[in-house]
Amino acid sequence: GPDMNTMATGIGSFSTEPSGAELFINGEYAGKTPLLRELGQGNHAISLSYLNYHPCDTSITIVQGEKQSFAARLERVVTVDTIHPKSAAKPAPEKEKRGLLSIFRKLRREPEPGPAPKPADRITKHPAYIKAMNDMKFGRYATAIERLAPLVSIQNAAPESKSIVLEKIALCYKKDRRFDKALSVYTTMYEFVESRSKKDNLLWEMITIKIDRMQDYEHAEMDLVEYLIAYPDGIWLSEAYIRLAEIQYLLDKPEASARTYKKHIEHFAGSQEAGQSIYALAQICRTELDDCSRAIQWYTRLISEYPRSTYKENCIFWRAECFSRLGRSKEAKKEYQHYLSHFPTGRWKQAAAARMQAR
Could you give the CA distance from residue 164 to residue 304 in angstroms, rounded to a whole number? Predict the structure, then answer.
């Protein structure tokens, strides 16, 4: 290789979490992270792009004869860390009301409408339950579980009482970061709970634990498919489509991911979440499926249906790149001009200008 002691160059080492992000140096595509690149000394503009993550724009300073490391943790665009309506895709008004009623009942420990159950509040007045709540308050989760476990098998206990105790045990396991144990408890609850909205929320809780806490993507994929089949009007339906598409992408199933995004777009046409799915689908077509014609169609649809989308700038630039890759030079040049006129200080301005000069 070149002798860096006699040349005004250094080495840039680029890595990201997650890896596989598209790296642009001074507007020119350099490859996917992790990556080593010899660069001239001085400042270089760095841009990173990754599907469903916020782009990262920064710079790196190369010193002659030295290696400069650059590492970035990219921030997700869509994520659900906990089962809470604020962190989920906003459902339709009717579904939102059902979801909120379910959550409010859960918080107040009220039963679902229907046949009057046996009073569940008896279990909350049991001395062991009261002591366990105090243990939880002070972070003594293992002790709380020891106190709560015998209450599950109390004779003639109402299912609602058993459910309350199991929920507390699962919460203790989660707080203690024993997610496999929490998952086992939720699985037990899912088998005997009869309330449809309760089962809906339990399955979603199990899915989020497998994805966000255990990175068990294979089983999460199966659970997400089950959710979509079992709860076609579920509280988490929109989020389930998005998460399934993301998981399929992570499992290197781009065709399956594209089909799932398309179904989400069809089910939730016009919603903000559908706009995000259109962009993700366009990116998959361009980067994974090497289908620029389909990518152009989806970029065009996003620009048309979501003129104020935060993805509009990227859509115009990547549509120009797709025209260029297809050999449609006139359309590419027109699109680069379109980009520069609408985004003169945009993140792709250098790349667009360079493409214009090269033609």
Answer: 49
Taking the C-alpha atoms of residue 251 and residue 256, their distance in angstroms, rounded to an integer, is: 10
Tell which residue, 47, 170, 42, has the closest CA to residue 106. Answer: 170
Q: Give me 290's structure tokens.
A: 């090497």
Assigned token pair, 65: 């004869």
Give the start-end residues of each E strand in 185-327: none
Separation of alpha carbons 17 and 308, rounded Å? 29
Q: What is the pLDDT of residues 139-162, one digit of tens each?
A: 999 999 999 999 988 877 788 889
* CA-closest candidate to residue 171, choices 151, 185, 157, 192: 185
Separation CA 172–CA 160 (nearest Å): 19
Is residue 124 a contact partner of residue 154, using CB atoms and an 8 Å limit?
no
CA distance 340 to 353: 8
User: CA-CA distance, 336 to 345, in Å (whole number)?
Assistant: 13
46-77: b (≥16 Cβ within 10 Å) or e? bbbbbbbbebbeeebebeeeeebebebebeeb
Beta-ladder partners of 312: none
pLDDT tens-digit readout, 30-47: 888 888 888 999 999 998
